[in-house]
Amino acid sequence: MSQVRLMWLVALSALFVLAQALVAQARPESLAPLAQKISPAVVNITTSTLVEGRAGPQGIVPEGSPFEDFFREFQDRNNNGNGDRPRRSSALGSGFVISEDGFIVTNNHVIAEADEILIEFFPGEGQPAKELVAKVIGTDEKTDIALLKVEANGPLKFVKFGDSDTARVGDWVIAMGNPLGQGFSVSAGIVSARNRALSGSYDDYIQTDAAINRGNSGGPLFNMDGQVVGVNTAILSPNGGSIGIGFSMASNVVTKVVDQLKEFGETRRGWLGVRIQDVTDDVAEAMGLSKATGALITDVPDGPAKEAGLLSGDVIVTFDGVDVKDTRALVRQVGETTVGKAVRVVVYRDGGTQTVLVTLGRREDAERASDGEEEGTSEPEAAQKDVLGLSLGALTSDLRSELGLDDDATGLVVMDIDETSEAFEKGLRAGDLITEAGQQKVTSLADLDDRIEEATEAGRKSLLLLVRRAGEPRFVALTLDE
User: Fold this and answer.
1) How many CA atoms lie within 13 A of 389 on its CB side?
2) pLDDT tens-digit series, residues 134-146
3) What's the per-residue H, E or C state across 4-21?
4) Torsion, Cα of 370, 374, 375, 380 (10° steps)
5) What H or E segment, with its residue span, contains residue 254?
6) Neighbours of 299 (CB within 10 A)
7) Are 201 and 331 in contact (CB under 8 A)?
8) Is the pTM of this model over 0.70?
């Protein structure tokens, strides 16, 4: 018996040793070898901008004050007598080399408005001159990415992008850059969250607790294979320093932007040409959808979608073979699709699905163009009706003028609203224009009555309204009275 027990102890000891070895292999004792390998591709960026000098004591004392001369003399002394002369302002940031011929990625806000951009390379054998002047190849404000280029005497050490979609919450990452102007610095942490959105339509940020401070902007976020999975862009902090909440733009977004900047010097994003909103639970119920997913079209101005036959009230459920989760997902996918590509768009319409082939335009061109106008119909007779917590009036010439609407605008005007109603809770206000009910145009109160009756007969618990305010459309589902 003692022999069996001894054998078990030996086996358990061997397993324990093996487990320790596997753990040690999975997480190295030191990050130094990895840092040493990738550091030569990380750069410090110094920008110089010519700033207009102050012409006087603006913002200190009112013009004409008896103290004006005193403060002007004070400013001139502090500016060595050059108070009204242009001066140079410097800023610091980070970046990284992505090719041996000198292409460098950083944040747009690091180099915006700069007159001169200097690249400082990591010190070491085989590195180029300490500083090289960079030129801007292209920038993208929407993702805050800029592509630079330097001319070196020989090939530069560079790093490659990794697949940010494979980064998992809890994976180890390394941030590198020039925090607070202290020079080359390395910090380590984990991926804290994925798919964070801050403010832009194309945001896809990796959140990390690796220390990121001012000056780290534009620097790389590496995985343990030494691949760039993010570009350090922003921090969340009440005091301006790192509190462990930093954001890096995901590499799968950055690579598409960089490829376009390298080829065209600008971005060329796909454009569908619709205004959309998320499908909420009550909107899904009102439309007869089984689940609240997809993107609901609120308006179709002149553009690719209108030419292809997409309609206001359609719900886009798949785009180019990919299921549409919500509006944010659709905007990103459309933007990442090649301009001019013919894409199959599946929409939910009239209780079923239809496939529409749309040839995408270019968003940058569309942003410089104006939206199309709505079609008009004959003017309805003047009337008023209380329904669904709303006091609705037919649109007349006087109301068009009072509300600043186009002469061909049609619909029902919200004249007043019960502040205890569901309509008020969902954001409707006096002056709003209701142009559709039940996904059909309404130009008279009789039209609205017909839509309510149709929804009731179909067993709907709510009615979907298309509401416009200052020209901006959105859908609102209101519960029908029992």
Assistant:
1) 19
2) 999 999 988 999 9
3) HHHHHHHHHHHHHHHHHH
4) -140
5) helix 251-264
6) 22
7) yes
8) no
Whole-angstrom distance, CA of residue 386 vs CA of residue 266: 53
Instruction: Confirm if 279 and 315 have CB atoms less than 8 A apart.
Output: yes
Residues 157, 117: Cα–Cα separation, whole Å = 20
d(CA 252, CA 229): 8
pLDDT average, residue stretch 406-435? 86
Pair type for strands 103-107 and 228-235: unpaired
Which runs of E-coded beta strand occur in 223-350? 228-235, 246-250, 270-271, 275-278, 295-299, 315-319, 322-323, 342-349
Radius of gyration of the chain from Cα atoms?
Answer: 30
| pLDDT at residue 328, as a whole number | 87
pLDDT digits (tens, 9 = 90+) for 348-370: 998 899 999 999 999 888 877 64
Angstrom distances, CA of residue 142 to CA of 100, 203, 254, 346: 27, 8, 11, 28
CA distance 434 to 424: 14
Q: 109 with 55: CB under 8 angstroms? A: no
Q: What pLDDT band is residue 191 in, cutting at 50, 70 and 90?
A: very high
SS (H, E, C) 289-323: CCCCCCEEEEECCCCHHHHHCCCCCCEEEEECCEE
Distance of CA 377 to the CA centre of its chain: 38
Spatial distance between the Cα atoms of 249 and 161, rounded to a whole number of angstroms: 12
Which residue type, as a one-letter code, is found at position 450? Answer: D
Backbone angles phi, psi at 277, to 5 degrees: -145, 160
Apex 254 CA angle, 199 and 318, nearest 5: 70
Annotated catalytic residues are 109, 144, 217
- Distances from the Cα of 197 to the Cα of 236, 334, 383, angstroms: 13, 17, 46
